């Protein structure tokens, strides 16, 4: 199926009918509900057409979906969301108007960044849905529908550093941007947008959070201790999942992907498709948990450590993964984002330990 959007020939394209059908099913659900569909829904729809959703996802060309193909897990959990990039949306039937509106929105956001007053203590450049609807002369119905779809895709694009909307009125959203939005000020179409976007997203091999001072402060210097920082090299799986997003300023998305990777690793090690609190209870609960992430040897300490790690993994999924995946998208504090990525890395290294213990017991 040919999608008639200017510049679409410069985008990645689905390689076969099953991949095209997957994009179409995802887009159809998103455009009607303003939510990305879970894998279970897409899998059933493709199965009814005689197609394999798992194979389509695994072989999907890079750039069409956010977070897929996933090198850490062949088959997503049933509740895993399947979000499209703007390229994936542009390759879906019925998306032409949305793509054009998306390009206009990005140009308008870039212009907002250019005109934003400079000075210390000022907020980051911000653009609201009301301003866009007024500038574009959109009727209320279109402002609440198509513009909201464009916002939901744009909030994870390069140069967009944060987004928010009130739960009582999701159409009243705000986007924030930084200087990385500037190359898009005069972008004419989706093909040119994608070329610029691709150039900005050079994938790093690893992510090293390095804010350490050249000379660590003396332990007795309380003033110096207030600025003490650490160099933290993240676990490779967390770095792979979150590096590009973090470097592009998508802090909330980086955190979500990090803890999504942790959850997928627990599923893989336990061989279950459960998720969330139930998964973590099965993996880390009881006197003989499925995954041994503890180090204590005395009975009292071991029991306490097991309970603590069960709560840590459960809390990580509930408070960090789920909120970033399904909740409101507030602007993340950069320092907190770093700390959350480091926490995900710590959990992943304890899962390395559990895997090594399991391999030793099996040999």
Give a structural overview:
The chain is mainly alpha-helical. It has three domains: 8-90; 96-200, Arc Repressor Mutant, subunit A, CATH 1.10.10; 208-362, no CATH class. Helices cover 53% and strands 5% of the residues. The protein contains 15 helices and five strands. It has helices at residues 17-33, 39-48, 53-58, 86-90, 96-115, 129-136, 140-144, 146-154, 190-200, 222-225, 236-247, 251-270, 276-284, 299-326, 334-362, and strands at 126-128, 160-164, 174-177, 208-210, 231-233. The strands form two sheets. A three-stranded antiparallel sheet has the order 1-3-2. Helix 11 (236-247) runs antiparallel to helix 12 (251-270). The N and C termini lie far apart (52 Å).
What features would you highlight for this structure?
three-stranded antiparallel beta sheet, 15 helices, two-stranded antiparallel ribbon, Arc Repressor Mutant, subunit A, 5 strands, 363 residues, mainly alpha
Numbering strands along the chain, what is their spatial order in the largest sheet? 1-3-2
User: How large a portion of the residues is in β-strands, by DSSP E?
Assistant: under 5%
Order of helices and strands: HHHHHEHHHEEHEHEHHHHH
Number of helices: 15
> Any idea how many domains?
3
Uncertain segments: 210-227
Number of strands: 5
> Radius of gyration from the CA trace?
22 Å
The gross shape turns out to be: globular
Terminal CA distance? 52 Å
